Amino acid sequence: MDMRTTRRLAIGILIGGSLAAATGFAQEIKFFRIGTGGTAGTYFPIGGLISNAISSAPGSRKCEEGGACGVPGLVATAVATNGSVANINAIQGGTLEAGLTQSDVAYWAYTGTGVYEGKPKVEGLRAIANLYPETIHLVARKGAGIKTVADLKGKRVSLDEPGSGTLIDARIVLGAYGLTEKDVKAEYLKPNASSDRLRDNALDAYFFVGGFPVGAVVELATSVGVELVPISGPEADKLLKEYGFFSKDTIPAETYKGVAETPTISVNALLVTNASQSDDLVYGVTKALWNDNSRKLLDSGHAKGKQIKKETALQGVGIPVHPGAERFYKEAGIKTQ
């Protein structure tokens, strides 16, 4: 074999090895899409924090010694969506690997009850973690004369978009006070669009379910001022008794500028996935969510981040926990509720 042939063979081996290495590298990367909600709500920033916490593409960043930074080779992304129902449908259809959803919507989907009555059960829905309480906000325009839920009759009210958990809960709240969508001038807008219309006096009130403080409401309260309508009294007590996934809640005074303490109700925000996701992957995602580096991201990234705690991760999930997540919690000594 002459020198020229040897050189060609060596170059061929190097190129082949490089391509093999590149192919192997590409195969190591796995994309993990997390459905959130509208960009003006709480799901989107929280979803972004979780994505950062669990992502760890090869060579993307260095971690402190002894502290894992996400799942090796996992690239997680937060995807803006219409919210809870849309996320569950996308997880079932395979266009999302995980998503945020309200605990009530997750329960209805899994059991085929409530808003899923008459529809196929989403039997593959599985929980990764309970995250934080989601508070029902009923935001009213100053001077609209809305002091109670019953005052919404005849008013211009946004109930949020179809596919959102907010729309479902808004209907339940209206019903508790003897109202239906036909009793109000209903619109179906995202929170940011609702805020714009309320600011322009084109809307009297809107519902939104999310962890406070909600960015769209903060901006509105600061710019033109708003009122929060309490969801309380015997009607709310009856609602709490009928729907076990609701809890009493309070929005503290000055959470939104100029707004007094407001009694209301809340549901849990869950991170969910499909039973078809591998146990090892979900185990890794769960473990990454609760490491020390993730704790720092959650604590500093959003006001609700501090309420996302490993100790409460299995409280009030209402649906089965994914086996991969369950394995992590057992190792951590956290019992399924």
TrEMBL record:
UniProt cross-references to Pfam families, sorted A to Z: NMT1_3
Recorded superkingdom: Bacteria
Gene3D superfamilies: Periplasmic binding protein-like II (3.40.190.10)
InterPro entries membership: TRAP_TAXI
Protein name: TAXI family TRAP transporter solute-binding subunit
Organism of this sequence: Flaviflagellibacter deserti
